[in-house]
Amino acid sequence: LKGLWKEWIEINFKDLIKNLEEENIENLSNLLFNMFQEPFTRGLGIFESFERLKKPFGSLYLKYIWNKYYTIFISANGKKKELSFPKFGNGCGIVLNNQIIPVESIRHSYFANEISALLEDLESPTIVEIGGGFGGFAYQFLKKNLHKKVKFILFDLPEINVISSFFLENSFKDKKIIIYKNDFKFNINADFDIAILPHFMIGDLPNNSIDLFYNACSFSEMPKEAAQRYLIQIEKSCCKYFYHENFETKLKFFQNGEEINNMKGSEIIPDEKIFKNIFKKERVFKLPEDKFYKSYEYLYKKI
Fold it and tell me: Using CA atoms, how far apart are residues 246 and 297, in angstroms rounded to an integer?
């Protein structure tokens, strides 16, 4: 593991990893049921709101961002009643529809609508999210497509998959969920609704088997070589759409004396002989502090 997330996990996942290694079920349960107020969800969205509330004017900041995101969602034909979020995990947000709705869940719900519209003609779409985080986008997409036979596959770091597995298993108790175990062999034709897999298994996807690949911001956070490997697999396995939103910030940092660079969003381009760019537009959801960083959304369609 290299890049920003190597240091991130070393700092923030100590308690989670320790209890996983010790197989301390009681402690793990306590940590995961409180996940959105635990450091191991730092960087996944909701923990940041919880931390912000501790600062001066934090509640005003949270209300401002929440209302900004909500306005964008409604103006894009989103419906108030569509916004939902599970009641476990100790989330932080604004009360709506008798639920606590985090800021991030509005963004996830917006993109669930956007991608549902792209795939509206498919009765059984297969989606891959690279960098699925705690499973927030998967939750919103699956909630909006309960009438379809969706296969949703998340690829992420194993430590983060622990979080998304817990979140999605508790959110969808009636769905068939595949979780990676030792000596596991993935078969895309198996009977499942959700598969949560480690990043190194993405090469197991067959050619032309995925209707849509989605990535939100993590390509521009990983080493260039890792992003390039994902891109090669997307070119092989995608049969319809590749949708990503990433930063234009060029990063350079050192780990163990090795220089590591990232790829900017504008450099993450699938083979132009087989993919057509549908749009490049400014990223819709941005925090005030993001104004110093350019970021865009990109949609590509396989020709």
Answer: 7
CA separation for the pair 102, 85 (Å, rounded): 8
In sequence order, the β-bridge partners of residue 273 are none
Degrees to nearest 5, angle at CA 231 with 227 and 236: 150
180-197 pLDDT per residue, tens: 987 788 999 999 999 999
Secondary structure string (H, E, C) spanning 120-157: CCCCCCEEEEECCCCCHHHHHHHHHCCCCCCEEEEEEC
Which is nearest to 29 in space by CA: 16, 45, 44? Answer: 16
CA atoms of 57 and 63, how far apart (whole Å): 10
Distance CA 280, CA 296 (A): 6
Q: Which run of H or E residues covers position 34?
A: none
Q: Which two tokens stand for residue 21?
A: 């290694």
- CA of 141: how far to CAs of 33, 146, 151, 257, 259, in Å? 22, 9, 11, 42, 38
**Residue 186's closest CA among 165, 163, 155, 160?**
155
pTM: 0.94
Using DSSP, state whether 257 is helix, strand or coil.
coil
Q: Which amino acid is at 150?
A: V
